[in-house]
């Protein structure tokens, strides 16, 4: 154990004047377990720091072929190790000058132990949750109604929320958000996606009922729907579809109504039509589409952003199904795919297909600047690939 | 699961003022290497906060280079050095026969000190195995580090034997 005399002797040899120094001295030594390597350092941002101080935990998730990510309850971060050439020592009892009073009568010797040291630390960077896998997992066993043969004979794997958290690299909140986006619903504790035709069948019942009862689209009563359509389809399914395609609200009397979302209904109708062929003549499609949507709703091409692509260069003009969720999740791969389909894109056409790639504070413009090259075509600014891509 | 490792090294170049003023360091990010951290099926590794109350706050000392024990006996249990502060609050570290001057810096991004814990995890009912315990790894936050003392200047040697003038 080092003494004050020994410290002073060292100071003398080092030619440092005791009077120039504060009277608190730390003698640092390595703890017994210092080399056992069970400690590691993780860099935090402000949000994560507060999260930990509030006593909440974090989870690292990743399959054997995936890069590890770290998740809080509502955010996902890429995890990397930064290896430096510096040595980082961590010491539990070490005070800085602002912690000791101005005038101490005598010298204080504090024996501090170094608990561990490291030359690397974990670095976290906020990233998009990797949720593309989710739809794929749930599509393996779509729900076609309680009486369908698939339901009765199925031995397919089904997933609860916890099951999904074990397989998807996302925080719980991001996972639940995505489940809502893809219209998943919980049936008997398991998350299921409805088979698209089945979902459309139920919507068809609902819109026909709205028509025959002459209701306004913005005031569809839940109770009547369940009563009239209950004999045809499970009540939970009817309510689920109303939730997916409308906004729920309660009147003063306590009755629940739904305001059907015109854009969502028209968009789903378009998908139903477009999935039947490779391409459609644009004007023919627009005519059939308008006729197929419930009376009183108006179709507009901008309702199809991220769902279908219009080709204005072909004669006649055509339209075909292109769903953003079917495209690659990785940014560079997504751009390669899009430029492989079409050499030059206007910002308006490509935006819906890259919007989900934008980082926390990144704009579409910034993304395009990084991954594409611009040129002018017929007086319009277009984007093409930075590297040669096979078309 | 894979973790990406990025290595960066401080590159030394003598300062314009000559050796006395200390070396200037420049950072350079070099290439990355993949490092596997858990070679198994999809895992969730938990990082939990300490059971009782807030994590304590520790200090970090950052040094350039490596520390070796003089007699090659290993570092555990051995003395490292004395830490002083000048009246102006500048930290001074005496390690072996070197003096280092540093400064206290508030970390822009605080650190969490994690300690690895090996536990046993019950396999849940969904996974069709009969209540076997699976050895698992998890981490616990032991402390937070919000400031560091960085010693960036070149260590000054302490001369113990001054030859007498003849």
Automatic annotation (TrEMBL), chain A:
Family under the similarity heading: Belongs to the DCC1 family.
InterPro entries in the cross-refs: Dcc1 (IPR019128)
Name of protein: Sister chromatid cohesion protein DCC1
Lineage: Eukaryota, Metazoa, Chordata, Craniata, Vertebrata
Pfam family of the protein (one): Dcc1
Keywords from the UniProt entry: DNA replication
Highest taxon above the source species: Eukaryota
TrEMBL record, chain B:
Coiled-coil parts of chain: none
Any single Pfam family the record assigns to this protein: Ctf8
Top-level taxonomic group: Eukaryota
Main location: nucleus
Subcellular location: Nucleus
Keywords: Cell cycle, DNA replication, DNA-binding, Nucleus
Record-stated family: Belongs to the CTF8 family.
Designated name of the protein: Chromosome transmission fidelity protein 8-like protein
The species this protein was found in: Huso huso (Beluga)
């Amino acid at each position: 154990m080092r003494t004050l005399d020994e410290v002073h002797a060292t100071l003398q040899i080092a030619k440092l004047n005791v009077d120039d120094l504060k009277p608190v001295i730390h003698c640092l030594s390595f703890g017994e377990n210092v080399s056992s390597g069970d400690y590691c350092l993780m860099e935090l941002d402000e949000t994560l720091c507060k999260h930990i101080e509030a006593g909440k935990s974090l989870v690292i998730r990743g399959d054997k072929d995936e890069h590890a990510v770290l998740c809080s309850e509502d955010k996902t971060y890429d995890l990397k190790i930064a290896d430096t050439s510096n040595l980082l020592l961590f010491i539990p009892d070490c005070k800085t000058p602002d912690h000791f009073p101005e005038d101490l009568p005598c010298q204080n010797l504090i024996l501090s132990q170094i608990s561990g040291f490291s030359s690397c630390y974990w670095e976290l960077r906020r990233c998009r949750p990797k949720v593309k896998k989710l739809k794929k997992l749930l599509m393996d066993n779509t729900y076609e109604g309680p009486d369908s043969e698939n339901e009765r004979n199925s031995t397919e794997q089904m997933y609860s929320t916890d099951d999904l958290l074990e397989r998807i690299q996302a925080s719980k909140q991001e996972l639940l958000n995505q489940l809502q986006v893809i219209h998943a619903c919980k049936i008997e504790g398991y998350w299921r996606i409805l088979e698209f035709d089945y979902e459309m069948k139920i919507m068809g019942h609902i819109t026909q009922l709205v028509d025959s009862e002459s209701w306004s689209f913005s005031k569809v009563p839940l109770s009547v729907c369940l009563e009239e359509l209950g004999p045809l389809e499970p009540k939970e399914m009817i309510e689920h579809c109303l939730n997916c395609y409308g906004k729920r609200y309660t009147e003063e009397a306590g009755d629940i109504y739904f305001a059907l979302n015109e854009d969502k209904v028209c968009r789903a109708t378009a998908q139903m039509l477009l999935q039947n062929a490779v391409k459609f003549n644009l004007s023919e499609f627009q005519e059939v589409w308008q006729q197929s949507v419930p009376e009183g709703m108006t179709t507009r091409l901008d309702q199809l952003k991220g769902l279908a692509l219009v080709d204005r260069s072909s004669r006649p003009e055509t339209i075909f199904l292109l769903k953003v969720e079917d495209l690659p999740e990785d940014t560079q791969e997504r751009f390669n795919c899009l430029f492989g389909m079409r050499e030059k894109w206007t910002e308006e056409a490509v935006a819906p297909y890259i919007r989900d790639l934008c980082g926390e504070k990144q704009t579409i413009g910034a993304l395009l600047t990084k991954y594409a090259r611009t040129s002018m075509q017929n007086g319009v600014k277009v984007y093409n690939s930075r590297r040669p891509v096979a078309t | 699961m894979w973790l990406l490792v990025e290595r960066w090294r401080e590159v030394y170049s003598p300062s314009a003022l000559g050796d006395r003023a200390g070396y200037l360091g420049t950072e350079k990010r070099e290439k990355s290497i993949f490092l596997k951290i858990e070679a198994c099926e999809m895992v969730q590794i938990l990082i939990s906060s300490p059971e009782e109350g807030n994590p304590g706050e520790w200090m970090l000392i950052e040094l350039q280079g490596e520390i070796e024990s003089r007699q090659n006996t290993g570092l555990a249990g051995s003395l490292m050095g004395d830490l002083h502060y000048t009246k102006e609050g500048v930290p001074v570290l005496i390690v072996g026969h070197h003096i280092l001057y540093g400064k206290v810096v508030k970390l822009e991004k605080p650190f969490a000190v994690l300690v690895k814990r090996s536990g046993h995890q019950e396999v849940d009912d969904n996974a069709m195995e009969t209540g076997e315990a699976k050895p698992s790894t998890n981490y616990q936050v032991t402390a937070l580090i919000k400031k560091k003392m960085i010693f960036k200047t070149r260590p000054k040697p302490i001369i113990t034997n001054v030859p007498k003038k003849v």
